[in-house]
């Protein structure tokens, strides 16, 4: 006898929330790039980095930006797989990566994706 799976809103909601988190994570990268450029050109913003070396601050911001790019792309891909109800592991991984983009929405994405495991194929 074949098992019938009822389709609910949970994986689609989790996927949409994961995409929102991925977008927020990539949006943070643009802010970090602006901060890096401001420090590089010494625009005299309201920050005073004299106690720390400018190179250290630039390196730290670049590392954070790279982390957010990776997390944002993973969240976007996981959100797409969540909406399509394919590959639960990738959809869950994407929603977990989305936590780094926008924490409260990312937690909701993880919850919706986790409780919808039975609706995924693969």
List descriptors.
single chain; mainly alpha; 4 helices
Can you describe this structure?
This protein is an all-alpha fold. It has one domain. It is 70% helix and 0% strand. The protein has 4 helices and no strands. The longest helix has 31 residues, at 10-40. The chain is elongated, with a radius of gyration of 19 Å. The two termini are 20 Å apart. The mean pLDDT is 87.
Question: Brief overview, please?
Answer:
With about 120 residues, this protein is mostly helical. It has 4 helices and no strands. Helices cover about 70% and strands about 0% of the residues.
Break the fold down into its secondary structure elements and pairings.
Blueprint: H1 10-40, H2 54-84, H3 88-98, H4 103-115
Helix pairs in contact: 1-2, 1-3, 1-4, 2-3, 3-4
Approximately what portion of the residues adopt beta-strand conformation?
Answer: under 5%
Give the helices and strands as they follow along the chain: HHHH
Fraction of helical residues? over 70%
Task: Let me know the largest β-sheet.
Answer: none
The global form is elongated
End-to-end Cα distance, whole Å, is 20 Å
**Gyration radius from CA atoms, angstroms:** 19 Å
Q: Structural class given helices, strands, pairing?
A: mainly alpha
């Amino acid at each position: 006898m074949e098992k019938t799976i009822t389709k609910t809103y949970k994986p689609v909601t989790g996927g949409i929330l994961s995409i929102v988190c991925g977008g927020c994570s990539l949006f943070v990268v643009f802010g970090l790039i602006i901060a890096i450029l401001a420090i590089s050109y010494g625009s005299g913003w309201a920050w005073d980095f004299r106690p720390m070396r400018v190179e250290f601050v630039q390196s730290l911001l670049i590392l954070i930006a790279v982390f957010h790019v990776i997390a944002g792309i993973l969240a976007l891909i996981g959100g797409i797989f969540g909406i399509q109800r394919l590959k639960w592991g990738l959809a869950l991984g994407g929603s977990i990566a989305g936590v780094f983009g926008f924490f409260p929405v990312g937690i909701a994405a993880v919850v919706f994706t986790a409780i919808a495991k039975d609706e995924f194929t693969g």
